[in-house]
Structure formats: structure tokens, C-alpha cells
Amino acid sequence: MDPALNIVIVDENPVRAAILIDGLREAGYTRVTRIEETTNLLAHIYSLDPDVIVIDLENPSRDVLAQMFQVSRAVKRPIAMFVDQSDAAAIEAAVDAGVSAYIVDGLKKERIRGILDLCISRFNAFARLSGELERAQNALSERKVIDRAKGILMKAKNVSEADAYAMLRKTAMNENKKIAEVAQSVVTAAELLK
Amino acid sequence: MSSDSLRIGFIPLADAAALIVAADKGFAVKLGLSLDLVREVSWSNVRDKLNIGLFDAAHLLAPLAIASTLGIGHLKMPLLVPFVLGANGNAITVSPALHSALILAADGGDVTDPNVSARALARVVGERRKRGADPLTFGMTFPFSCHNYLLRFWMAAGGIDPDEEVRLVVLPPPYIADSLSSRQVDGFCVGAPWNSVAVELGIGHILHFGSDIFARAPEKVLAVRAAWSANRDDVLNRLVSALHQAAAFIDNPDNLAEVVALLAAPHRIGVAPEIIERTFRGSLRIAPGNSFRSDPNYILIGRQGAARPDPSDAAWLYAQMVRWNQAPLSADLLFAAKACFRPDLYDGALGAAAKSSAASAEHIGAFTGPWFDGDDVVGYLAALKMPVKNQ
Question: Which of A111, B140, B359, B386 is the most buried (most CB within 10 A)?
């Protein structure tokens, strides 16, 4: 671990960036900065003069970083991608997690191995969390639409809540659909017929 | 025939058309191939995922396939090109302000002539330097791209040193509109449909079609790892056949509406169908209002033998890398670059069909400068160093 390393995070997702920055600070890296803007990205990077750049793979700006490898007067010092041929496993783990890292040429790989490992685990944790959140939100909105459909059926058919639910379930089974999908059709139809 | 599944990365651009149509119109399935097309947001992602084997094949910038093969700018990963997905299709778009400045600087000349526009640009650049203004900034999509080489070739023809007198920056297509309207860039060179998108937004003028600068330049290729292809002749043959059939389908004007519908789908290119349709008609709105321009060679998907990889085109791309200091000049690198483009794989897959499409149209055909001879790259580069005649 090397607290003196200057780390720049390029991630448009504020939550994931925060998780990553927290992780790096907990691990003792004190010089961590996030760049939010996508415009003038290189100018921002040059002014921060980082040793390590971490960028998410969903970021189109990755191609902007490719420019740093070009011979140009604007570049203060050459930067090479962290992962080289000997690091096939590390590249795969990083790409799987959706993150990529670049380091200043000449920096020993061992010095930043911990940073990449940390990025990979935090990115994976974030993906798990957002997956769970999405599933929870879907479940919630499904329950809401099923409740609305039950209400519509109870009123239109003058049946109990249990019977309304049974009707939805039976139709779903017959049509090989999810109950929520049938419920959504009921709600849509009811709105059209209003 | 066995059914094989291939994961193929692509960037949402018009020249991914053959891949999209091969997958979505059923040409691949009929040949026992299931194509899983994965849309990506950056060329870096496509390259990395192809390199590590997450993709079996990829829609790739032609120069990037060569750079990977030579190990320039990134890891060395030998790639093969059995099929060229598209030639041309690019355009240079400038801000309305720069467009006006160029017309003024052309002093009555016709700025649709790249000779005239390049010299006009040189005057604008010189005038800005004199009054201490920031240099003009131009966007392109990747250092190893025809967009980069096209801009540089055009500027150099006007006597501009693109490394010293202007700023060339990588500009991902999703940021083009913002960058142009906020005047962070003064112009850009990018593939279809992004020039049209800028014109539709009323923030750009298409100054030149790419075909004004190079009559015919290889643009995107289908690339596979050389190691991957080693024991997959049969799969590769079927993939090339499916792409060939898709390209022929795309080229038939009767199919245009269907092709446009397939490409415009949100998970494919995902832009307005009208814009894609104009791209394939080669008829683009070039300025806000009712100003259109046509060129049947604006974009070539398979037509005129454009799909057949030509090692001479690979040599030309390598020569551009040498010219702009991306690669050293060496006989070995030139040899490796040429060997990356594999007409033998194309011919092997298509048999007799290959012959009919191999009609040798003029390649490259730059608007100015020396004739390119793939067997004399040194002579070509020396001729390019001759001073530009300023008028």
C-alpha cells in the first residue's frame, strides 16, 4: 500500500464512485479524486497529474484516454495501461467487473495491485447491490399493479379479493404469462375503457 | 451442420449493418450460426473484450485491427480480417461559425472542393494565431481511425501541421452534440449517422463527405483473433458467407425500408429511421434547412467489392500510422500489416461469389497528393513530405 499515490476516478455513476472512493480511503489511500465532467477530460486529468486512473467500462470516455498513449506535446508524461500481457487473469477480472485502470509508465505493478483488486471487488459489490435494488423495485411495482388489477376486477365482477387474485393467476397460467403482466393488461384495459 | 454460437461486439454505427442484418434477418441462422451481438460504448471496450476472448469477433476500426496486430499503442494481439464491413461513410462536420469563416477565407472559392477548403482552413488557422486566439479544436473517434487520418490528410493538404497548429482530440459520439454546441470543438470527423445527427440538431454543417477526401477507404472490418481462427475454418467460412448475403441484401434498394427498420431498433443503432435511410441512400442533409447532397459512394457496404480485404489497403493504413508518428517505418511491420487483411479467407468462404465481387475499383483515390502504391510505401511517404504548394 502506498498512500502517496495520486488516484483519479472517472465514473459517471456517483454512488459507485462514492463506494470506490470510500474503499480506497479506508485502505489508506488519501489522494483520491473523482472527475465528474466528461468534457475536457484530458485537461482535467493532466491538471490532476495522477499516478493511477480508474475508469468504468460503461464510460464512452475510455476512448479519450487512448489519446494519452499518443505522441503529443500536450502529454506531460506517458501513461501505460496497468494490465499487460502477463496479466491475463487480472484483465479478465477487471473487464468482468466493468472497470479498467491506467497507470503512469514506470510505476511498479506490485505497488498498485491492491488498488485494482479493491476496484474490482467494489465494482462487483456495487453490481450486486444494484441488482438487488432493481429486483426489489420490480417486486414492489409488480405488487402495486396486481393490487390495482384486483381492485378493478373486484368492482367490475363483484368478487372477493381472493377470487380476483385467483382469476389473475388462472389467466396467467393459461396464457403462460406472469401474473404481473396479466394485471398490467387489466389496468391498461380499464384505463382505455374509462 | 452444427449450430455454433458467436459473441460479436459492435459499436452502434451504420457500418455495423452487415452484422446486424446477418443476425436479425436470419442469414446467420440459416448457415447454422447463432450471432449474439453485444453493443459497446467504446472502441477500447471492443478491443479489450476481443483480446481476452469475451468476443469471438468484432466490428472494429480498420486501423485499430492493424494497430492491435502490430502491438502499437496497446497490447499486441494478432488479428485477422476476413471481411471488410464498410468503406467510407465518414464526414467532416464543422460549426456554423467555422463554416462561415471558411467561406470568407475562401474568398469566393468553392469550399465544397477540399483543395479550397483546406487552404481556407489554413488561412483561418493563421489568422487566429496572429490575433492570439486558441487554436481550432477538431474531434475524432479514436487515434487509430480513418477519422483521424482523414482530418490530418485534409489539413496537411492545406499546409497545416495537425500536431502543431490545431488540436485534435478524441470525442466519443455521444458527446459530439454538447461539445459542438458549447464550442469546445469547432468541427469533427465521425462515421454515419453522427454527422447527420449534428445537422438535425442545427449545430453543424457537413463540410465534406469522407469520399471527397478519399474516394474509397477501408473503414470498419470484421476482426477475429488469429489464434481463435486457427481451428475454426468452417465457422469463419459460414460467418463470412452470412455477412456477404447480408451485404447483398442491404445493397438492394428494394430492401431499404426493412434494413432501416432493423438498424434503427433501440438495441442496435437506435437513431431515427429517416437518418439511417438517408445514410444508405447516400443523400444527406448537410445544413439546417433543405440543403441536401448526394454521393452514391458515401458509404459502401459490400458494394463494388468493398467487402474483400485488400492487403494494399492495409499497407495504406499502416503508411498513415507512419506518417503521423504512431508507428515506426519497418519492412517487418509493413509485412505484418498487410498479412492482417486476408482476401484468401474471403475468397475461400465465398468461392465463385467472391470473383464477381472482386472487381477492382479504385482504392483510396485521395483528392490530392501522391498515388498510393502498396508495394512502394517508402516512395509514397517521401512524396508526401514534399512541401505543399500554397496559393
Answer: B140
CATH topology of domain A136-192: Arc Repressor Mutant, subunit A (1.10.10)
Describe the strand order of the beta sheet including A31-35 as a list of residue ranges: A31-35, A6-10, A52-56, A99-104, A79-81
Give domain limits for chain A: 6-132, 136-192
> Contact at 8 Å (CB) between A67 and A47?
no
Instruction: Determine the Cα–Cα distance for residues B298 and B216; give it in Å rounded to an integer.
Output: 9
Hey, what CATH class is A6-132 in? alpha beta
Nearest to B220 by CA among B15, B391, B372: B15
Q: What 3-state class would DSSP assign to A53?
A: strand
Task: Please state, in angstroms and rounded to a whole number, the distance separating the CA atoms of residues B246 and B228.
Answer: 23
> Is the separation of the CB atoms in B142 and B61 below 8 Å?
yes
A61 touches chain B (CB under 8 A): yes
Mean pLDDT lowest among A28-32, A41-45, B134-138, B167-171: A41-45
Q: What is the pLDDT of residue B390?
A: 46
ipTM for the complex shown:
0.89
> How far is Cα A28 from Cα A2, in angstroms, rounded to an integer?
8
- pTM exceeds 0.80 for this model: yes
Residue from the list A58, A63, A70 with its beta carbon closest to the beta carbon of B326: A70
Q: Which domains does chain B have, with CATH numbers?
A: 4-88+217-272+299-311+326-369 (3.40.190.10), 90-216 (3.40.190.10)
HEC letters along A87-132: HHHHHHHHHHHCEEEEEECCCCHHHHHHHHHHHHHHHHHHHHHHHH
- Run means of pLDDT, 10 residues per run, chain B, 391 residues: 85 97 98 97 94 95 97 90 97 96 95 97 97 96 97 96 94 88 94 92 95 96 97 96 97 96 96 94 91 94 93 96 94 97 96 64 84 91 72 39
- Are B152 and B162 in contact by the 8 Å Cβ rule? The answer is yes
Give the CA distances from residue B318 to residues B59, B106, B221, in Å, rounded to whole numbers and listed in that order.
19, 33, 15
Closest CA to B27 of B224, B261, B247: B247
Cβ neighbourhood burial of A8 (10 Å; 0-12, 13-18, 19+): buried
C-alpha cell at B238: 459460414
Contact assignment for A65 to B52 by CB distance below 8 Å:
no
CA distance B361 to chain A (A): 33
Interchain CB contacts (distance < 8 Å): A and B: 78
Residues in Cβ contact with B87 at an 8 Å cutoff, skipping those fewer than 6 apart = B216, B217, B218, B219, B299, B300, B306
